[in-house]
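Sample entry (590 residues):
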Amino acid sequence: MAMGSSTPPVESAAPAIQATPNRPRLVWALLVLVAFFWACFVGLKQMNLPIYAGFFSTVGSVALLTLVFTVWWFAAGGGWLRDRALVFVSLIAIVAVFARFIDQSIGVMGFIFFGLPVAISIAVVWLLATRNRSAAVRELGMLAIFALVGVFLSFVRGDGIDGEQNAAIRWRWTKSAEELYLAGRKTNASAPDAKSAVTKPTLVARPGDWTEFRGENRRGEVHGLKIATDWESHPPKQVWRHRIGPAWSSMLVIGDRLFTQEQRGEAEVVLCLNASTGEEVWAHQNQTRWYDAQGGAGPRSSPTYSDGRIYTFGGTGVLNCLEAATGNVCWSRDLIADSGAPKPMWGFSSTPLVVDGVVVVYAGGKGDKGLLAYRDKTGEPAWSVPAGPVSYSSPQVVTVQGKRQVAFLSDTGLVGVDPPTGKMLWEHKAAAPQIWRVALPRQIDDAGIVFGSEDLGLVRIDLAKATPEAKWDSRALRPAYNDFVSQDGYIYGFDEGFFCCLDAATGKRQWKGGRYGHGQALLLADQHVLLVIGETGEAFLVAARPDRHEELGHFQAIEGKTWNHPAIAHGNLYVRNAEEIACYQLPAAK
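Predicted structure, serialized as tokens:
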């Protein structure tokens, strides 16, 4: 070859990795989408949406963001298709690998609904910043971002969510409230043996006891008690306060005994305490555990007392009948076996109802295995009726034109059942498949019943005729898992995190006041006063008056997220949550 001649370059058989602009305008468009996603995420938190609406909005927005990012990655991500496919498969593998190490409180769903939006957002910023770098740099950076998010999620755990769907995140190595409780039990040598403190052969209820979930007839009312409302000068006095295992159960007070439920490691426990000291008297254990990432561990329903016995229903479907004095088992049933029902998303939550010789409890099985009744003395099946596949509510006794019946609310609507026979008396259809409904129906007058949920708001029906007649419906009060009370023609309760008052005749809102979170309320009927337990464990005294919201006093009763219903017996207030239980003496009125 002669000098000075030029040699044409030899083309490579395979294209070399080179810097490519990768359509920066499309990357900018994706960045705008990510910014819009987070703006919507924050905005939805401020809109006071019903929990179900917020939940499904979050699910939908995360799914949309993931879909758009995936389509963009394959359609406009730059580089070779096989490389993009390899990166995509690698990202799925990262999620699968870290799912083995992530705490169960986070789980795969936590990675998807929390980790994915964060990882995608950081990845979009990375792709924009490196749009002029090689495909290899960009892709390796993508994998590193997803891996780092996985590492972070492996180091934390979730301690449930609050009523606004905000997650409580803790470092994984810090002890949970349940672990602290169990450690304290192991080191407390003075803890009594379950049976040793039993001295009474029977336990009989007396006036002033708290024998049912939400009190007499489950109405959330206290009668025969007047208290001092100037809590600045005369605050409630703490009698005792202890740690307790996780559960969303309420409490009963029978004589000098208090009954509730809790989780102790792998054992679900029915617990009897001395009501004056909080010390354990006896504990019945079933070797089963309910846990879900949103609500945490432990039973969801509350005990019921009847004729010397305690009836309890656990989160995994175990129905117990126990001697109230001793904790000895009278009978027990497995409702999954009896009904064929699957375990609900957030556990079995129905509080048993004892009426006319039967124990009524919701299972949610197919066909006529929705609402089940058992003979209260023997546990033998009495009847079962259809009642919808999804409900976290409890059966409630109502007396319509002199006839006692059981009312029950589910995702299919409200039904009325004859207690002795199980005959279906009436049905008001309000179908919303798979939507959870929690609050108990409330009888307003001889034939009027008000019921509600987040999706329905409140609905009033009239049962004077053979077919229920709708009187009004209102979106002014949307009860989530917060029951409402009524006095003198007005309804008081929680509209999501706000407390408010409605006219029971029209459904029109009278006022909307204190922001107490997703708490619970009782009515001190003799003096027109509401005792509200806020979601953070603070107790508020509120006037039950329809013209305005008036807060009379407050104090911090316990610490931590408090969804449990309080109880009042013999002038004492009992409050609990998944961490603490306490007794306060209410100041007597002068």
